[in-house]
Amino acid sequence: ELKVEQNPLFLSMQEGKNYTIYCNYSTTSDRLYWYRQDPGKSLESLFVLLSNGAVKQEGRLMASLDTKARLSTLHITAAVHDLSATYFCAPMNDKIIFGKGTRLHILP
Amino acid sequence: GAVVSQHPSRVICKSGTSVKIECRSLDFQATTMFWYRQFPKKSLMLMATSNEGSKATYEQGVEKDKFLINHASLTLSTLTVTSAHPEDSSFYICSVIIADTGELFFGEGSRLTVL
Q1: What's the rounded mean pLDDT across residues A85-108?
Q2: Which of A33, A41, A100 is opposite residue B43, by nearest beta carbon?
Q3: Looking at beta carbons, which residues of chain A come within 8 Å of B6?
Q4: Residue A92: enclosing H or E segment and its boundaries?
Q5: Are the CB atoms for B56 and B66 separated by under 8 Å?
Q6: Do the Cβ atoms of B104 and A99 come within 8 Å?
Q7: Rounded CA gap, A106 and A45, in Å?
Q8: How many CA atoms lie within 13 A of B42 on its CB side?
Q9: Interval A29-69: pLDDT, tens
């Protein structure tokens, strides 16, 4: 059974700083998704990583995937307040299972 | 634009009644849709995988007789919460995978409150 461990679960940081969210999973996964969720809203797709070594970047966010280590990271560069949200990773084998989420609070 | 449309976005019902939530794929056909539920400040939990033209596959611990899923067409899946109770109050979200790109898109979600 696929298990997902995301850390940290809560992160408060200053604007302008860099930080990384980690996503470990327990079994072989075909692909991995990253999502953003704002309070009271549904999920917004950020990245889908389809192969080992995949790296994708959009603005201040960059995601990577190491299938051998069963690890994905979401790196935030020079954080801004608008990035405050909850971020979820979700690897997929025969189903898509979500991590517990990282609540990111960026202080202006 | 939106890829998946979900309706209603909010519903309040009395205990014991049934509520139907619709999930539509826009401009493409979806043979598979996923239903999740999310409690406040918690993660998403997969409830079931909805397959067009066949029975849904439910996750362990999800009552198939309580959460009825129908995927009668390639663009529509419905989730019916039968005999709803206050503990069924939650945020229900559907999703579909775009086969070409592997992207997984979510509907806007349906917030159910059972009084």
Answers
A1: 93
A2: A100
A3: 42
A4: strand A85-92
A5: no
A6: no
A7: 20
A8: 11
A9: 879 999 999 999 999 999 999 988 899 999 999 999 999 99
Q: Give the whole-angstrom CA distance, residue B23 versus residue B76.
A: 6
CA distance B15 to chain A (A): 23
Instruction: Please identify which residue in the block is written with the tokens 């560069």.
Output: A77
Q: Whole-angstrom distance between the N-terminal and C-terminal Cα of chain B?
A: 34
Q: Mind telling me how many Å the CA of B46 is from chain A's nearest CA? A: 7
φ/ψ (deg, to 5) at A70: 55, 50
Of B43, B101, B109, the CB nearest to A42: B109
- Write the pLDDT tens digit of every residue in B4-55: 999 999 999 999 999 999 999 988 788 889 999 999 999 999 999 998 888 8
Structure tokens at A43: 């999920």
What's the DSSP call for residue A81? G
Q: What are phi and psi of B88, to 5 degrees?
A: -85, -10
- Taking only residues 4 to 43 of chain A, the set having a beta carbon closer than 8 angstroms to any beta carbon of chain B reads 31, 33, 35, 41-43
* Residue with the two structure tokens 């790296």: A55
